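An instance noted here:
***
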Amino acid sequence: MRGRLACRQTSDIRVRSGGDPLCPELGAGRHALRKQGCLHPRPEKVTDEAFAASEFFDRRDLVQVKYEMLRRVRVDGQTISRAVTGFGLSRPSYYQAQAAYEEGGLPALLPRKPGPRGAHKLSAEVVAALQEALAEQPELSAQELVQMVEERFGVSVHRRSIERALARQEEKRR
């Protein structure tokens, strides 16, 4: 088969010639990038000469594209406008990548999961009040604690959130 990788069936796993487990039509590399959140949304827009001339550079790898874009500006002295055009990204993307890289290096270019980074409703103050209430009245149920949090702090939380927060605090004490 010319132009396509041959797949063979081994046990219940499809193996692509070359050893990669997975042989989807999209390609194992693209599948892995998508799974990690690193798939460039518009790889066809990457026109930088390094990505066209070398197999090492993968225009689908958003982390690699961002790093090379930053390097092109910082080391090669390319203008930001030219760099973002050549790498298929926007100026705000450049500035976000630059700030992230300066703050945390290459790992900071990896995508982060969306959403809050911690228990934003159950602050340390709320958890301390829960522990205090349980110390005074150990028979309080999770539902009663939910009501207490809502009355005292004006925050609506699920009983399981309270149970998990208290369990985390218990783990920290051990």
